[in-house]
Amino acid sequence: MPSAKRLRSLRSVTSWCRSLRVIAFAFAAMTVVQDAADVRAAEPIPLLAFGARIAGDDARTRIVVEFDRKPEFSIHYVGNPVRIIVDLPQTSFGLKPESLEPRGLFDAIRYGGMGVGTSRLVLSAKGPVEVSHAEVKAEEDGKSFRLILDAEKIDQARFDELLGDQQWTGTVRAAKTDRPVAAAVKNPSAFVIAVDAGHGGIDTGAIGTVTKTEEKHVTLAFAEELVATLKREAGVEAFLTRDRDEFLSLPQRVQIARQKGANLFISVHADTLKQKDIRGATVYTISDKASDHLAANLAERENLSDEIAGVPLESEPAEVADILIDLTRRETQAFSVNLARTVVSSFEGQIKLINNPHRHAGFRVLQAPDVPSILLELGFLSNKDDEKQLLDPEWRKKVSGLLAVAVRRYRETAVANGG
Ligand SMILES: [Zn+2]
Asked: How far is the centre of ligand 1, averaged over its atoms, from the C-alpha of 280 (Å)?
């Protein structure tokens, strides 16, 4: 919901204030996610998946996963592209990556945490498939359990039937709400910044070329440093959208920022490029049309996050009062661009930037209509020099400090402009 400050910045259209309030309620209604109030109660000890194997061909494929305790599981299907979703209780995956290398019917297999005590196995198939048999068997010694999944090739009509029959919305339960943001609520005049560590849980993001570090860990380490640095600024409250290795869908990230009344949203990333020599930071803002190929490709990959996790794409909510939303969006967009430019100028001469460091593309995580948002590519895990820096706490401290300076300057101009 637009904060008081954001609404104040719209005072040039005071005659529309009432309508804006209506929109604010409409936005709030749109963003209610099932089980949003769910909290992570006493967290049980996760299951351990300690072994796995896959065998089969283009007609039939068997997957076996070994657990230390008996796993409860449920199976669902998602189309476009075809995926089998296996939901599990929270599980630590101690699997060798090669043990579930995709083969047979499947061209990608991912597993990891989904938040709120659940984990997931996502099997992406080359075409329509069905799980013809699924069971858990105790090993003879009674000390471990095998989950056996047999998948078979089927035709599209049968797959459509499977999709139609299942009572499953695929909604990922919202992350717990008792996060460090509580302080922001205590001080209503605070300038609130949402720091979003890209990827998480089942979505590992990019992988470092040299150290094989996963992007989700790099982004969280940086985001934690940034929040700590921003909190030292007078009048600033900062919070993390995720504070652990868990999956959040792209709309959930936006929703958390808006629910906490964020005045700014900064999503942190460190992706890879085919061109390994390219290095340096980039600051992205949202736009329908990408500024260039690199930006377009990157946005496309980032937007895959929900698909990787097996989250069905939600249908877009019906637009309410288009003109007013457009107006809010356009104004938010101007603030986002202003922030991006301020960040670039704060970085200039201090850290390595790529050519044309302010770029734009259709990142779904930047689509809050009322929260100025940027996506920060800190550097590329495909470049060994960038990778080294990204893993260096001192470098993270320095960049966080430069961002704090940028936010300070942004606030000065925003206040001057009535923002
Ligand atoms: Zn990323």
From this structure: 15
CA 16 to ligand 1 center in whole angstroms: 38
14 CA to centre of ligand 1 in angstroms: 39
Coil, helix or strand at residue 211: coil
pLDDT digits (tens, 9 = 90+) for 126-181: 999 999 999 999 998 888 999 999 999 999 999 999 988 887 766 554 444 334 44
The count of domains in the chain is 2
Full-model pTM: 0.79
Q: How far apart are CA 295 and CA 66, in angstroms?
A: 41
User: Nearest to residue 27, comparing CAs of 259, 278, 208, 194?
Assistant: 259
State in Å: Cα 85 to ligand 1 middle: 23
Whether 269 and 411 share a structural domain? yes
Distance CA 353, CA 355 (A): 7
- Give the domain extent around 352: 174-416
How far, in Å, is the centroid of ligand 1 from the Cα of 390? Answer: 13
* Residue given tokens 């329509």 in the structure block: 128
User: What separation in Å is there between the alpha carbon of 63 and the centre of ligand 1?
Assistant: 29
pLDDT tens figures, 341-362:
999 999 999 999 999 999 999 9
CB contact set of 194 (below 8 Å; sequence gap of 6+):
238, 239, 241, 256, 257, 260, 262, 264, 265, 266, 371
Give the helix/strand (H/E) hosting 186: helix 182-186
Are both 180 and 199 inside the same structural domain? yes
CATH code for position 191: 3.40.630.40
Q: What distance in angstroms lies between residue 402's CA and the mean position of ligand 1's atoms?
A: 21
Cis peptide before 357 (omega within 30 of 0): no
Q: Which residue has the tokens 């592209």?
A: 81
